[in-house]
Amino acid sequence: MEKELTTQAYWEDYYNHDHSTKKHIETVCSRYDSFWDTLITPNPGNQSIIEIGGYPGRYLAYLAAKYDLEPTCLDFNSDATQLQKTFASMGVSHYHLLEVDFNKHLPEKQYDYVFSLGFIEHFENYDAVLDKHLHYLKPGGRLLVMVPNKRYVRRLYGYLVDYKNLKAHNLKCMNFKTFKAFAARNNLKIARLEYRGGFPFGVHQKLNVFQKLIFKPTRIFCKYVLNPYLEKHPNKYLSAGLVAVYEKPLTDDGIEY
Predict the structure, then answer these.
(1) Per the record, a Pfam family (predicted)?
(2) Which end of the chain has the least Cβ crowding within 10 Å, N or C?
(3) pLDDT confidence of 8, banded at 50, 70, 90?
């Protein structure tokens, strides 16, 4: 059993605000259009996509609308209201919701595309969680995995002003080695593997006076000086996240999956 660093209650509280307006969804999700274009290969006919840990559904709804995909959201969050609002905002009327525990669920079908954003780093045994993603992926399909980058400078910053959130993440998976090893043991083609984004200065807690003295100048410096540079020149020491895109082979040594 994979030990989780967060609980269902943690996530239901984390996403208790409304994320379902179309403007908000498009603003947030379009930042990653370059990666979505690597993941999705438009094809005539119905193509399916599933997001692992998909609540509140904004990325999934965005991709379903943008690429005309049939979406499935897998998450153990018990409130489907926001998911329904999200799909409605993006004009997606046909979708599937799987309210299940990923670690216990056995997939009944496979999908053309699978993705998870900020998911595997909440487990101790992240390698096993990564491998389980492939149970949902069709041969020849593509997988995208994105994790935050809380190592190096962000780790120190987290200790100072965002400690609780820092401890909810397993930093051991946040490196190229993890994602290259995943590809190697599963015979996957790496379509893309890189760091992305500016320095993530946002925090998830109330700050005391001392912490505000750190946060406020950091926010100003990052917003107006550092992050415009990092958006064009990301690196492992400062950038917000790490993204990997894979292609699953049609066969392995002549034997179909």
Answers:
(1) Methyltransf_23
(2) N
(3) very low
- CATH number for position 240: 3.40.50.150
Range from 37-46, 135-144, 148-157, 203-212 carrying the lowest mean pLDDT = 37-46
Residue 119 within any structural domain of the chain: yes
Q: Which of 103, 89, 23, 9 is nearest to 57 (CA)?
A: 89
Q: Is residue 133 predicted with pLDDT exceeding 50?
A: yes
Q: Is the pLDDT of residue 52 over 90?
A: yes
Number of domains comprising the chain: 1
Rounded to whole angstroms, the Cα distance separating 163 from 204 reads 9
Identity of the residue numbered 125: N
For residue 205, name the pLDDT band (cuts at 50, 70, 90).
very high
Domain that holds residue 77: 8-150+170-199+236-252
Q: Which residues, including other chains, have CB under 8 Å from residue 107's CB and lie 6 or more apart?
A: 135, 136
How many contiguous H segments (helices) and E segments (strands) does the chain have?
A: 11, 9
166 to 40, 61, 150, 216, 227: CA distances (angstroms) = 32, 28, 7, 19, 21
Edge-to-edge strands of the sheet including 241-247?
96-99, 70-75, 48-52, 111-117, 137-148, 241-247, 189-196
